[in-house]
Amino acid sequence: MITRRSALSVTLATGGAALTGAGLTPLLAAHVRAQPATTTSASSANAPAVVAAPEKFRRPMPLLPEKKPVGRAGKSDVYVMTMKPARAEILPGLTTDVLTYDGHFPGPVIRARSHRPVVIRQRNRLTVPTAVHLHGSSVPADSDGDPMDVIEPGTDRVYHYPNRQPHAPLWFHDHAHHLEAENVYRGLSGSYLLTDPAERALPLPRGRYEVVIALRDARFDAQGQLAYAMGDRGRNTLLANGVPYPYFQVAARKYRLRLLNASNQRRFELRLADGSPLIQIGSDGGLLTAPHTTDRIALSAGERADVVVDFSRYPVGTSVVLKNTTGTGPAEEIGEILRFDVVRAAPDPSRIPGRLRTLPPLPRPDTERTVVLRMDEGGEHPGAYIDEKEYDPQRVDARVKFNSSEVWTVTNANARAEHNFHLHLVQFRVLERAGRPPEPGEGGLKDTIHLAPGETVRLQAVFDSYRGRYLYHCHMFEHGVRGMMATMHIQ
């Protein structure tokens, strides 16, 4: 059984180059021998994929299953969830070994309500430690899923989510340090939609017309297994809700699409093939103040977008493809994600109000601080740093006064490498990107923000919910594995 100490030694011994492709050695070789999952060797990671690319738009996109509580404990909804290995038919006719929550690839959707607590008993029936992080949530430190606060194999852990924050499209994923990148890649992620009365009062599309779509990339070996290698830039098979290049049948009316980028490191830029408008109504931290009409939605790893598409503009019997216009890989593999097929008419009582929510004014900041993200560009064992330090779980990197407001200036110091930045515990507001006001799609509450090479963003957060130790880090998982994480202590 791999331990945190042995995982660390594996990482230090094997490394891997995110930018050059050199030394792409699997992180969890011991884990893979114990689990049914299969990884690639360093040499096969750089070889052309042997398995044929699946034919596009031949399989339907499934809806993600909704997880139901098993009961109530006082005012809390109680869930039981089991992390376990399973098999899924991701590629047609082939069975792939995956790691799952409750046997689902991707994981299920939990629907929660503000001010109605949730308690989840997580049962680890894998052979490696795990830690469940509810991404974007405001929770006590002992339920945040700290990378070193793990659930050992064969044991259980109870997480308490007070849900005292407003509505937001959260998601949960593994965060065990040195293991999280491969564990999430193999399937350990799911969605957690938190709602509140203000959101439910709006006449937005709902029910069957509100659809969660988890996007990600993958690479498969000749046997149809997920091929994992650290920093692999050849993950060019795109999945929507666990299926490569599916179609999704829609009615000629408005749909609310809850988009999640669950990739380890890929960034998406989403457009409709005919250039029709997308109406963004929300981001990581819930609804924007007003709808934003655009022709593209950009999502780095871990970011979410809430988008309305009006399919009534298309005649029944027509189709439109959701395209991706950025990232590494051949255009025929990464340029298209899924196809919407308009198959019927339907009544549509929904509408998009001109005003979606009101955000309180930001207070005068008590403190300003700077954060610099950098990783070695080139070399066989690249390091990754925040403020030129690799992650040390024993070290506190930032001390934050409880109930204070801070402005953080975050810079990507790399010339070629992209990064993004995620703060645990709080949702923040973007003040500036590259010296300019944020685009409308970044004007709401955020917890993850993309940084292009050489770019700087300024953001402001209020630390008024819980005390304790929480992370801030790059949310490109393999950058965090290499050390691009740090700890803040809210006191």
TrEMBL record:
Domain Plastocyanin-like as annotated: residue spans: 86-197, 244-316, 369-488
Tree of life domain: Bacteria
PROSITE patterns tied to this protein: MULTICOPPER_OXIDASE1 (PS00079), MULTICOPPER_OXIDASE2 (PS00080), TAT (PS51318)
EC number per UniProt: 1.16.3.4
Organism: Streptomyces venezuelae
UniProt family annotation: Belongs to the multicopper oxidase family.
Single Gene Ontology MF annotation: oxidoreductase activity
Root EC class: oxidoreductase
Assembly mode: Monomer.
Protein name (database record): Multicopper oxidase CueO
Pfam families noted in UniProt: Cu-oxidase, Cu-oxidase_2, Cu-oxidase_3
Keywords linked to the UniProt accession: Metal-binding, Oxidoreductase
Catalyzed reaction equations: 4 Cu(+) + O2 + 4 H(+) = 4 Cu(2+) + 2 H2O
